[in-house]
Amino acid sequence: MSPSGPQAAFDRWRYAGVFLLLFLFGTETFLVSPLLPTIADDIHVSESAAAQSVTAYVLVYAVTAPFLGLLSDRVGRRRTLLAGTALFLLANAAAALSTGLALLIVSRALAGLAAAAAGPAIWAHIAETAPERVRGRALGLGMALFSCGQVVGVPLGGLLAGATGWRSAFLALAIGTAAAVPLLLRQVTGVPTAAAPAPAGGALGAVLAAWKHPALRRALAVNTAFHAANLGAYTFLGVVLVDRFDLTVSALGLVGVLVGAGSVAGSLLGGRLGDRARAAGRHHLPLLPVWGLLLAAGIALSAAGPGLVLALLGVTVWFVASGGFVIDQQTLAGTAAPDLRATSSAWLTSTMYAGTGLGAWAVGAFDDAGTGTLVIGAGLALASALAALAVTAGLRRGTRAAAETGQDGEATAPAPAADEAVRP
Fold it and tell me: Least packed by Cβ within 10 Å: which of 50, 146, 155, 314?
């Protein structure tokens, strides 16, 4: 199959606006944690009280994302994306003007609402408009830029906050968002999304429709288990490394760079390998189980590998697997049910947060963080790899059945999207 045609037509600059927004979202997600002591001291509250601003962002995103994903599927990507972007700009401007905890928490909650509106719309927009042969690569580049928010954006925000105060970091996010608006207006068209029949149960039924789709239901279950291992165990990574190797705070900061760099590499690698697999006729996300196995290996090395070098290698492998897995999942959400693209993407994020909370609770139940990380992290990673085999097998059976009957299968056969046919 020749690489010409759709692949040759792939234009990365066409997505400059949404890629910039993903970078800013990645920075926003991780920015507050290193600034907590400074923020708490400045507004005269405890660090635990200031941490409520982090909880507000994550909780609002997790709860509202599926409903706002449905809104994107119903009213279109452009409207939802632009509304979310405008709210994100205002929320960060409000954070920059905060003089007390109440306004900071409200502004962070609004930022979570804005990201919950724009994020699923972005992933759906990329899946609908990127040429089929490079769809995974386009999604991978978007996720890599989101991860760059942690690797590049957070350190830059920290430097800016150190030089001119923590509010300037939020002001910079607002200015960056304003810079993305002209690009979004020009690059995100108002092409309508695929029409979907209204499910029984009204809006709630529509929000839950992804769970009624067999392939998506299995994928969301795998997503929950994977991130219970991945981000749940990551909650205690700093504790594990300090206990094992007595690392300083500065050294832990360098570990954070490894985490971000691994995520970037995994996102780019996952997108490229996925595109190659699909070009060869393997349309069933064959790498999902591989990422689960790599995650188990990375966590085991980090928690129990002999020596600091192997432990840091484990951290890198851990987050290469994390980045690659997320891209495979976003590809599935974007192609398994075209009429549920944004809703499915939103559920991926919600189940990611749910899995993170469940995994962190399970690891924390152990007296020793290293033992909990090894048992829960590696164990759930292996379980997610086995469950991913079932997802892959189910997609393969669906495609085979559709090919034999000559009928379009919702989960696997080509289905009309906004501007082209899509196929997982």
Answer: 155
Closest CA to 166 of 90, 99, 96: 96
Q: How far is CA 346 from CA 233, 274, 290, 339, 352, in A?
A: 22, 21, 24, 13, 10
pLDDT (mean) for 271-278 = 82
- The residue length of the chain stands at 424
Domain definitions of the chain by residue range? 11-189, 204-424
DSSP 8-state secondary structure symbol assigned to residue 419:
S
Structure tokens at 328: 């495979």
Where are the extended beta strands (E) located within 337-399?
A: none
Read off the pLDDT of residues 284-324 as tens digits, 9 standing for 90 and up: 556 889 999 999 999 999 999 999 999 999 999 999 999 99
CA torsion sign for 24, 29, 34, 35 is: positive
- pLDDT tens-digit profile of 353-375? 888 878 888 988 898 989 999 99
Q: Is the pLDDT of residue 414 over 50?
A: no
Which range (36-50, 71-85, 200-214) has the least confidence? Answer: 200-214
What is d(CA 37, CA 202) in angstroms, rounded to the nearest whole number?
Answer: 45
Name the helix (H) or strand (E) containing 156. helix 154-164
CA separation (Å) from 82 to 25, 94, 136, 273, 335? Answer: 14, 18, 24, 32, 23
Measured CA to CA, the distance from residue 412 to residue 392 in angstroms comes to 11
CATH number for region 204-424: 1.20.1250.20
Give the span between the Cα atoms of 147 and 54, in whole angstroms: 18
What superfamily would CATH give domain 11-189?
MFS general substrate transporter like domains (1.20.1250.20)
- Mean pLDDT across the stretch 9-24? 86
Q: How confident is the model at residue 237 (pLDDT cuts 50, 70, 90)?
A: confident
**Residue whose pair of structure tokens reads 């760099």 in the numeric block:** 261
